[in-house]
Amino acid sequence: MKKILFTLFVLFAAQAGAQKFALVDMEYILKNIPSYERANEQLNQVSKKWQAEVDALTSEAQTLYKNYQSEAVFLSEEQKTQREEAIVAKEKEAAELKKKYFGPEGELYKKRESLMAPIQEEIYNAVKDISDQKGYSLILDRASDAGIIFASPKIDISNEVLTKLGYN
After folding, report:
1. Could you tell me if 29 and 156 are in contact, meaning their C-beta atoms sit under 8 angstroms apart?
2. Residue 76 φ/ψ region, left for φ over 0, alpha for ψ in the -120 to 50 degree band, beta for the rest
3. In angstroms, how far apart are the furthest CA atoms of the chain?
4. Which of these, 11, 8, 13, 33, lies nearest to 136 by C-alpha position?
């Protein structure tokens, strides 16, 4: 896939002639934006908190299971069934909580979107403004693994983007 993208880029560049290109390094830009670092820290804290909740439920289920195993010989069939159902219910509760917090549309995803979307929008607008001002036809992210083998530092506009955003 990377080779295909690179080949398409090379073909496009060959046809583009006098069009101007530039690079940005999103990792570098994001590392130099304090609000991004704060957002990441917030996400880490809330993630740890939620993971602790999930781990607590999982631990409860494991404890119920261990107790069940050690007491199974003394329990009636009805009591065994009740204990087994309690264990399954606790495991299911832990799995549902994990999905609620960490699933594809979970709380962590929503939190990340709410914290990161404004930062990404701000960066996009700065890149677009610089592109419009300087007449760039294409701006690539040097940090992504899109098959860039070599890129001259002369066309990297990451510092311009940071300046446009108000960071030095």
Report:
1. no
2. beta
3. 84
4. 13
Q: Which of 116, 92, 107 is nearest to 49 (CA)?
A: 107
* DSSP output for 106-134: SHHHHHHHHHHHHHHHHHHHHHHHHHHHH
Summarize pLDDT for 11-69 with one digit per residue, the tens: 555 555 567 888 888 999 999 999 999 999 999 999 999 999 999 999 999 999 999 99
Ordered alpha helix ranges (H), 32-76: 34-71
State the first-to-last Cα distance of the chain, in angstroms, to the nearest integer.
Answer: 36
* CA separation for the pair 104, 70 (Å, rounded): 38
Give me the residue label for tokens 């069939």. 77
